[in-house]
Amino acid sequence: MNIDINVKNLEKTYTGKVPTHALRGVSFEIMKGEFVAIMGKSGSGKSTLLHQLGLLDTPTAGNILIDGIDVLKLSEREKTVFRLQRLGYVFQEYALILELTALENVLLPAFALDGFRRKHNDRAIEILTKVGLKDRIHHRPSELSGGEQQRVAIARALINNPKILFADEPTANLDTNSSREILELFKKLNKELGQTIILVTHEPDNQKYVDRVIWMKDGLIEKEEKF
Amino acid sequence: MKKKFKLALFLGYKSIVNGNKRIIVLMIFILSLAFVNLIFVASILNGVTTTQNNQIINNSVANIVIDPQEKPTRENYVTHTRELRKQIEDLPGVIATAAHYNLIATFAYDKNKDGQYKYGSWPVIGVDPEEESRVTEIPQHIIAGRYLEGVGSGDVVLGADITGGYNDADGEINSLGGAKVGENINISFGNGVNRKYTIKGISKVKFILADATAYITAREARSILQLSDDRVSQILVKIKNSGEESQYIKQIKEMAPNLEVREWSEYAGVINGSTKSFGLIVNIVSGIGLVVAATTIFILIYVNTVNKRRQIGILKAIGIEENIIILSYILQSLFYAIFGIIFGSIIMFFAIEPYFISHPIFLQIGDVSLTIKKIQVLQSILSLLGAALIAGFFPAWRAVRENILKAIWGT
């Protein structure tokens, strides 16, 4: 198995009147095709870790190699292109563009990467069908349920065939059924497409879907569990 | 580049088409008012200036005035005018010339025929009625009685401000208090000559300089001044195309180098001063209007962009480049500005302008309507587009520089 992500001594301190050490020197590796959950109590640093890995934030110290590239050395513009080409995101609150339909939301990263092409339309419909939204492609986010919106967000994250899919508590705002459907969808993507997925969650039940759990506590890795 | 532009256009288009319709309508409405404001005040002040200029040309001194020699010795009259006028009238583009005899006089009017006279001093101009109708419009603006005819003496045409009773306001105090056509008045001229005249007509062109002037025939004027018919106070020259005065002045000066040849604007006097002041006011008001419009656009678009901070954060998070996001906001901003300009133009040209044409503002220089200059409209359009460009760029530029997570979570 090849290494997809290699993290060394990652630190993140939020400056302020009282500096907060959200990450205190975290090191780990994630292999290609792995489905990893980062778990821990609220404030343990799991979301902060995901944000650093996903290049949404800049760590205070340490190294992150993604696909062999030292991503912290990239310029802001290069990071943007890197995110577009290689990373996919699913946020807790869906983070869809409200003025776009489900299909347009999914197409947006493809248009940004490769221009307006017919093949993207076909692929976006294919992915939306795969996530169970074939009949909802022309609906706007306000016309979709929370679970449906999250599936649109997943389809959007997948449109450019990302190396790694990041999901930050994607089921936090969903009911039990929708949560289960989303996690089963992640599992299916991981099994069928070999998609590397890093999932931040605080639900212990979600362990059953993943290959490995990295437990965080007070900005450090407390333990790792493999299944 | 084309790919990026298309994506920015796509984002901007979707944001407008699927955005809050009420906000879009409000933005366009406010921008259209900002555009109207930019043009309206300047147009009304331009209207004042245009009216003044037209009145001076059409009802006072025509386009060019030829005055008597001033150097080396000052003469009171222009001499040998027949030959000179013929030469001028032969110039292509010259419509006509007219001789004027300028006098100052005191008027006495016994309204109730009881020996209680009302007095006033006004200028009197001796004119050839036929010539005058080709050079000024006063003969066409007789509101009572008739204009002068032929060479007859004993008749006078009074401006409505002299007779009184024909103005909505301020007419009675500085007038003869209601002199009527057919009534007699006594006029004492500056050289001591006193004569009795019958009011033949009353003229009103709504221009204070013309409406406060009396007109007698040229022959009558010559008899008062004891002049031969080849000597006049002034020669007025009417040309086809206003604005080309300088080239005619040059030619006339070559014909009569000793005479003073001047453009109408030099005779505007106080009015000319106010024209210059209006020009300054137009510039100041336009400048302020532009700042107000630019600030309005900026605030509107800034608030709109700040409200979309989360969306900007999401776009950045999924890998949309900053310059595409900024361009999409600039395009949205330009959209609002373009539609603001279109609706502003509709309001201006199909509502406000027709209203002012049918309901002009009455001033002492005449009926003032709007004068919308193409260059001012163009300047307003470019100014508004420029302001929209900046207003679209700056907030978006600030927003995209923000930390992605802060933008998304609004912290």
Q: Quick check: average pLDDT of chain B? A: 88
Structural class of chain B: alpha+beta
Beta strand count of chain A: 10
Structural class of chain A: alpha/beta
Distance N to C terminus of chain A: 16 Å
Measured as a percent range, the helix fraction of chain B is 40-55%
What is the strand tally of chain B?
12
Question: What is the spatial order of strands in the main beta sheet of chain A?
Answer: 6-7-8-3-9-10
What is the share of helical residues of chain A?
Answer: 25-40%
Short note summarizing the structure:
The complex is a heterodimer of chains A (227) and B (411). A six-stranded mixed beta sheet of chain A has the order 6-7-8-3-9-10. Chain A has a four-stranded antiparallel beta sheet with strand order 2-1-4-5, with helices on one face.
Short descriptors:
heterodimer, A: 227 residues, alpha/beta, four-stranded antiparallel beta sheet, 6 helices, 33% helix, globular, B: 411 residues, alpha+beta, two-stranded antiparallel sheet, 53% helix
Q: How are the SSEs ordered, and which strands pair?
A:
The complex is a heterodimer of chains A (227) and B (411).
Chain A: E1 3-14, E2 20-31, E3 35-40, H1 46-53, E4 61-66, E5 69-70, H2 76-86, E6 87-90, H3 102-114, H4 118-130, H5 146-158, E7 164-168, H6 176-193, E8 196-201, E9 212-217, E10 220-226
Parallel strand pairs in A: 3-8, 3-9, 6-7, 7-8
Antiparallel strand pairs in A: 1-2, 1-4, 4-5, 9-10
Chain B: H1 2-17, H2 21-61, E1 64-67, H3 81-89, E2 94-109, E3 118-127, H4 129-135, E4 142-145, E5 155-159, H5 160-163, E6 184-189, E7 194-203, H6 208-211, E8 214-217, H7 218-225, E9 234-239, H8 245-255, E10 260-263, H9 270-307, H10 309-317, H11 322-358, E11 361-363, E12 366-368, H12 374-400, H13 404-409
Helix pairs in contact in B: 1-11, 2-9, 2-11, 2-12, 9-12, 11-12
